[in-house]
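hey
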């Protein structure tokens, strides 16, 4: 059993107590994957910190460099999370905090944003050999929020997307097989250095924690192009996230 907390809302940032309660009520739990744009509670919240010390844990840490802008108005900038990020990196095995530059909002200067974030993350976590990315999907409510903010939807053409992925791959050591891990972008997988993302991957638990989960198989509840393995998501779309990201598919507003 792997818990996902959560694709549906930022549970570590907003609902840490619910994570702790669910873990306490679990009869068997082999690992937990935390998804967050605010890693501070992973260190500050005593209950969540204890979960991370006792249950094999991976953190999908999403950082786009847009925190505090109209795109992500209530996400704390990385500079405000630096101490907790470094501490989380020390408490977990190397590689257990995994970077998601997701989605790629290809506004002017996005490549400089990418390299700036990468440099700051490496100061806290050490050298990175990959990143998970995707391009924003035009969900009707997300498009409406963006246009209501007076902005155009950040459409990325095929050639522009291919150029972006190739450029990102070049920012990592050439020896890494999948330097850019693509989340539900099957048309881009032929680009050198690109590979399928598995944001929930039992083999990562086996590699980092010595578990013996093996291949849990594809999560049939996710999109066809999703590479994630089976897990139980303990969040809910009815649990509102405070970040207010314009492009968010999970927001009910």
């Amino acid at each position: 059993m792997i818990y996902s907390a959560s694709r549906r809302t930022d549970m570590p940032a907003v609902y840490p107590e619910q994570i702790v309660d669910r873990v306490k009520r679990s009869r068997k739990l082999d690992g937990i994957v935390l998804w967050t744009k605010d890693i501070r509670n992973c260190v500050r919240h005593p209950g969540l910190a204890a979960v991370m010390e006792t249950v094999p844990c991976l953190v999908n840490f999403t950082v786009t460099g847009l925190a505090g802008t109209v795109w992500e108005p209530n996400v704390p900038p990385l500079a405000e999370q630096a101490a907790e990020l470094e501490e989380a990196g020390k408490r977990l095995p190397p590689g257990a905090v995994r970077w998601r530059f997701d989605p790629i909002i290809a506004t002017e200067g996005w490549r400089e944003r990418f390299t700036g974030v990468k440099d700051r993350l490496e100061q806290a976590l050490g050298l990175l050999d990959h990143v998970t990315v995707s391009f924003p999907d035009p969900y009707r409510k997300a498009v409406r929020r963006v246009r209501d903010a007076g902005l155009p939807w950040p459409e990325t053409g095929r050639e522009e997307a291919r150029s972006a992925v190739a450029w990102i791959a070049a920012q990592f050591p050439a020896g890494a097989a999948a330097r850019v891990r693509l989340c539900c972008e099957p048309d881009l997988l032929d680009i050198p250095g690109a590979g399928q993302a598995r944001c929930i991957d039992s083999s990562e638990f086996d590699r980092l924690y010595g578990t013996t989960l093996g291949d849990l198989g594809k999560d049939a509840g996710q999109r066809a192009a999703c590479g994630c393995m089976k897990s139980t998501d303990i969040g809910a779309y009815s649990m509102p996230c405070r970040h207010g990201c314009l492009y968010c598919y999970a927001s009910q507003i």
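The chain has a mean pLDDT of 97. Residues 5 and 234 are 6 Å apart (CA to CA).
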